[in-house]
Each structure stands twice: as C-alpha cells, then as structure tokens.
Amino acid sequence: MNTVKMKDAGAGRPSGSAAGTGNGPREATEGLGATRVSVVNAGLSHTSSTARLGHAVVSALQEEARNRHRSLEVEVVDLRPLARGIADALTMGFAPPELQQALDRVAAADALVALTPVYRASCSGLFKSFFDVLDEEALRGTPVLLGATGGTPRHALVTETALRPLFTYLHAPAVMTALYAATEDWGASAADSGGEAGARLAARIRAGAAELLDASASAPRGTDAQVEHGSPEDQGIDGFPGFTDFQTLLHRGGLS
Predict the structure, then answer these.
(1) Which residues pair with 36 in a beta bridge?
(2) Using CA atoms, how far apart are residues 143 and 125, in angstroms rounded to an integer?
(3) Which pLDDT tens digit goes with each residue over 140-158?
(4) Which of 89, 95, 94, 61 is nearest to 75 (CA)?
(5) Chain region(s) in the chain for CATH 3.40.50.360
(6) How far apart are CA 256 and CA 247, in angstroms?
(7) Which of 78, 124, 242, 245 has its CA 20 to 30 A from that of 152?
C-alpha cells in the first residue's frame, strides 16, 4: 500500500536536529519501511512550470512505488515561503525555525528530487541559496533526481552544467536521467521548438522516478564511495593502479 503525504515545509513535526545534519527526524522515523522522498521546489508560484514538473514526478514516483509494492512518503518543500529565512541564514549564520524544519526534513529523506527554474543559464539563486545553508554532510549518499524548467530547449544542459556538479560536491549521487521541461513540453510552441511538444518528457519522468527508487533501495544513507572504501589518502597510491603523484610529476619536469 502506498502512503503518500504531501506536507508543507513549515508544518508538521518539530525540528529535531541542528541545521540539516540528518540526525533527529530520520532517527525518529527509521525502521517504518516507507521510502521518504523530499521534493525541493524552487518555483515561484503553485502554478509555475517547476511546480507542475514536481507534480508529474510525484505521480510517477507513486506509480513506480506501486509497481514495486513499496510504501512511499513524499514531502514537497516549497522554497518561496522560505526565501526570507534563507536570506537570514546566509547573512546571520542561523536558520529560523521554519527553515530549520525544512532543512531537517530534506536531510532526513531517503531520496531527493531537486527542481529549479532556469535563470541566466543556471539554477535560481533561491535554489542555490537553500543548498548553501544546508550542512555539507547532510545529503551524503542520498540519491537525487535533478530537474529544471525553462522557456527554451536551449537550456536543456543546465542539469549537467549547474545541478550535477552541485550535488556531486554534496556527495549526493544524482541518478543518470535528468529532467528538463521547456515551454513546448507543456503543449505550447516556441520559436526554437522542435515541434515534438514534450512527447519524450513523460517517458523521461518515468525513467527518472524508477532510477531514484532503485537507487534509494540499494544505497544506504550516509555512505558513498569514499566512505565505504576510504579516501585516496587512506588507500595510498596502491589503491589506484597506474597513478602518479603530483610530486613525482614535478620532479620529472625539473620543477621540484
């Protein structure tokens, strides 16, 4: 049986940890069996194309969870109501309670969907600022589905140039499929449209949802390649066959 809970970021259970560390809420609900997915929506209205993409992803996650006979709990975190709190956290160094609750819930999720509109060929400042105030270790090992929306298909690579590097830095492995929805994907036409009118978007959403659920089932939270196998410094050169350290390269070039 699917259990899908759509909750506002500022309502619900109280915060149980420091800024987005992933302790607190996760510990309180661990072992209940449901896969918890946080959908971070940086759209600026409930009717924005980013919010619409979020609704489509949630529907696909529900369908995929039913196919896998898995219980699912989804929480949407809308960033627009948190904008002032995010600015306060950036400038003053502490998160107001409403923002803190949202940070804790994102940190406690088993999987993440990260959605942003495109501004100036990149993610929005609101989206980036939210993850700037999240603890760097909060998403370690958390699989993430990347998504963006824009007015033209020309920005389709923003998920690879702006979003994937961000979550790589946060040690949150992004699934292979990324989502981008342009104007034409919602049935409208654009000057640079290919005329396909979003025929492929629904298939990509289903593929991304399936990959995210598969990743959340196979990757324990709080682990990634470095945690499981140790950092390169721990392994030493023997852990990387054929690796030549920088000091040796400098010596060969007569620079050391």
Answers:
(1) 73
(2) 22
(3) 999 999 999 998 888 999 9
(4) 61
(5) 25-223
(6) 7
(7) 78
